[in-house]
């Protein structure tokens, strides 16, 4: 079978909601260069844009996977189909990865309306992997109602999730520094909903108050809700149903105002620039005339100051 | 180039996963993407997770003695979901006298206690060479 037939088979499989093909398509996206996967992405693009995309982010160990597990259950109770992309870090040294988010969600594996995929970050530093955006498109085209994107455990500046998710949920757990941490720019700003998980632990109430103050100052419309959860509590109210309700309310609000359209247009704008940069680099690097500008001899000349770095850049730009 | 993905799983009622975690970590150190699904999984859960994750290998670990029952069931469940191409190997406390039987049921290799990581990595590399999927 040639490449085009294989791609068509993948597309047909995705549109027929066949899990094997969905899974194969995500691997294809993860493993292929832009020019190889472009014909495939072109074919699924018309089928995208229907799913609601929820981002779950927070520091390592805050409870992202456990909350995701409980959210799957809550959405399934509403008869919604759910797909999850759970991203964990790749080793910068061995390129290997130990993907462990799925452990918390395994009880949903046999549900035919749930798809869970672990992804390694593969060198991307924004909390997602390079392929996450395109994997979302595959799941969207496959007709999942809800797509949950769980980021790697984040610190202060990994905010790529804000470029893909309609609703970003930021999860805190008590014990990660004083209120100044919550006042800083970066990750803390991107939340549409704040969750204080492990709310039974010491200092949870203090953290709740601090985050509520931050949420009150937010210029966002609507102002971010602040919730407390105990995600592991299976005997009493865990707070997850309330979280699901807040997410649904938020999604409805932005859908009915023009905010969702604005958000999605912002996603497209940032993706256009990203994709174009990649396509341009591919094109430039495959141009034989340009290759000579950065062979080893040229690099050595720059090193020896025989050539000016910026002159080389100018020359490359002229040659394009 | 395709990145090799491996699911490490523990079927059945066996809560001792130090070995499974060690193998998972060691395979990561050798550059593979490893998914660990935790303890007490049914063969069906393991097979479906393997398909959703699009792995090349499933490594099973079992210390309870039920390997003759559970390992072939995983192979069977993979077959049921059309994933015969996924290679299954096993490890744990498995008597030598059971290895022939397990291999006849489609478990490609058994790695007993004391196996070096290099032996497992060599197995994965050799088997990967003979797998040729053009897409994905």
Automatic annotation (TrEMBL), chain A:
Protein's UniProt name: LAO/AO transport system kinase
Similarity-based family: Belongs to the SIMIBI class G3E GTPase family. ArgK/MeaB subfamily.
A single MF term (Gene Ontology): GTP binding
Signal peptide segment: none
NCBIfam families assigned to the protein according to its UniProt record, in alphabetical order: lao (TIGR00750)
Gene3D superfamilies hit by this protein: P-loop containing nucleotide triphosphate hydrolases
Domain of life: Bacteria
UniProt keyword annotations, A-Z: Chaperone, GTP-binding, Hydrolase, Kinase, Nucleotide-binding, Transferase
